Amino acid sequence: MKTLYKKVPAPPASPGDFPYTRGIHPGMYRDRLWTMRQYAGFGNARQSNERYRYLIERGTTGLSVAFDLPTQMGYDSDHALAAGEVGRSGVAISCLSDMETLFDGIPLDRVSTSMTINSTAAILLALYSATAARAGVPAAALRGTVQNDILKEYIARGTYIYPPQASLRIVTDLMAWASREAPQWNAISISGYHMREAGSTAAQELAFTLGNAIAYIEAATRAGLDVDDFAPRLSFFFSSDRDFLEEIAKFRAARRMYARLMKERFGAREPRSMKLRFHAQTAGSSLTAQQPRVNVVRTAFQALAAVLGGAQSLHTNSLDEALALPGEEAAALALRTQQVIALESGVAATADPLGGSYCIEGLTAELEEEASAYLARIDDMGGMVAAIERGYVQREIQDSAYALQQQVESGEQTIVGVNAYRADEPASVPILRIDASEERERARELAEFRDKRQREACGAALDQLRTAAAGTDNLLPAIRAAVEAAATLGEISDALRDVFGTYD
User: Fold this and answer.
1) CA 262 to CA 276: how far, in whole Å?
2) On the chain, which terminus has fewer CB atoms closer than 10 Å, C or N?
3) In whole angstroms, what is the distance from residue 502 CA to residue 238 CA?
4) In sequence order, what are the residues at sequence separation of 6 or more whose Cβ sits closer than 8 angstroms to the Cβ of residue 385?
5) What is the pLDDT of residues 201-243, one digit of tens each?
6) Local structure of 491: helix, strand or coil
7) Where is 315: in which H helix or E strand?
8) In angstroms, rounded to a whole number, what is the distance separating the alpha carbons of residues 492 and 95?
């Protein structure tokens, strides 16, 4: 945003009052701090379990699971297409045994768990709930979030499997199941983060995220769900990017727009249905391989923007993430960044401390106006799914990404250490490396897992899943039954591929 003070509206309502511009609770962090999460997962389940214990010991208040690419795409670790990717971008999870190892010794009735997973979200939630049940924890006691936001995969990220309409069915089936069986669980985290990472502007991130939310809510209501039954468990996921003041204003505008949208467009009656709850992550795309320790400063400012914007949950990136998966010390320092903001800076003592600022209020109104114009264009196209199928959203983001890159290359946009204040010395930070032998070990473990199961029961459960997919029944009970019968993630995904096909 180049123009400040373009509009100076009257100060908004108090924190906790509709439309929640200043925060969804009157006291905000005075009453309860945000959940401090650290996105973690690498190699096998045992290694990731050790990292989770390490983070819990250092004060993290919520787990956030990163899955490897094969898990995200519905392939077991021993599949030919998984070669070279097992455990590389997150933890490899292929079966119930893996999930039990991942959370061994972690009290699932007391820990909030976020899982960044989309195409296979229903399978991972089934594995998680089955693991909890074996530990004596009912689904109703589980707290956490599964991302389950498939539309942004078609827009910006690419880890989709099935065609859009089939994917939307899985999303809404998961929402319906969670509303009945796991009422404390957030059945979807509607994500603008990945669109921002792909190059969108703040206004585009805001508009396209809310556009996706509209599509999910419409799909859920078409499926017969009452908006006040599921809306209180919808959650959002935004980037906290470079422009400190703009990001604070973006979060405030998001709350205001969503509250009005839910009340006026969808007829929500319950205040909880109108309150936008969001997780924020500092911008991975802002991290540099050059002079990586400077990333600590970037992350601290981005984390502070998320807090001043009223986040309910926050992940701070580690200084080494432009080079590799986070190492232990880097992850601990990223967590300490949140703790310093929470406990030393004083900003948590006031709800929306920048509310009433000419700059912040003007930027908030400006972003709302620009995002609303995008939403109007999307409505004219027939909604978000139609806009995605026409390539409109993707082109808008690509054009913004290209413009930003031109600004960096011309020097108009300064990146310290990249196009200004460069240094010749190489980066000297420890790098986490994944042993190549991990794939062979994973194949051995999976073969052993399959040998121990009852093949007939597993095959019957997968056939029942295909029947459910071909009909109209909710898919979650059939997926959960397949998990209990020791079907693997890849086998369950293949059963759904048999019915839905794949999307290219």
Assistant:
1) 10
2) C
3) 28
4) 151, 164, 165, 168, 215
5) 999 999 999 999 999 999 999 989 999 999 999 999 999 999 9
6) helix
7) strand 313-315
8) 10
Contact 189, 145 (CB under 8 A): yes
Q: Which residues contact 177 (CB under 8 A, 6 or more apart)?
A: 187, 474, 476, 477
pTM of the complete model: 0.93
Q: Domain range holding 201?
A: 28-410
* CA 33 vs CA 53, 237, 244: distances in Å: 21, 17, 21
Rounded distance between C-alpha atoms, residue 200 and residue 203, angstroms: 8
pLDDT, one tens digit per residue, over 61-80 is 889 999 999 999 999 999 99
**Does 4 reside within a domain?**
no
pLDDT for residue 5: 55
465, part of any domain: no
CA distance 105 to 124: 19
**Does the residue 22 lie in any domain?**
no
Q: Look at residues 265, 240, 266 and name the one whose alpha carbon lies nearest to residue 252.
A: 240
CATH of the domain at 389: 3.20.20.240
Residue of 152, 145, 150, 149 whose CA lies nearest to 125: 145
Q: What is the CA radius of gyration of the chain?
A: 22
The Cα 466–Cα 162 span in angstroms is 14
3-state secondary structure 332-388: HHHHHHHHHHHHCCCHHHCCCCCCCCHHHHHHHHHHHHHHHHHHHHHHHHCCHHHHH
- Helix, strand, or coil (residue 339): helix
Structurally, the chain folds into a number of domains equal to 1
Question: Which two structure tokens, joined as six digits, stand for 158?
Answer: 């690419």
For residue 446, is it within any domain?
Answer: no
The residues near 269 (Cβ < 8 Å, ≥ 6 apart) are: 228
Helix or strand holding residue 36 (H, E): strand 35-40
Kindly state the DSSP code that residue 263 receives in the 8-state scheme: I
Rounded Cα gap, residues 147 and 153, in angstroms = 11
The alpha carbon of residue 66 and the mean position of all alpha carbons in its chain are separated, in whole angstroms, by: 10
For residues 311 and 278, give the distance between their C-alpha atoms in angstroms, rounded to a whole number.
6
Distance CA 181, CA 312 (A): 24
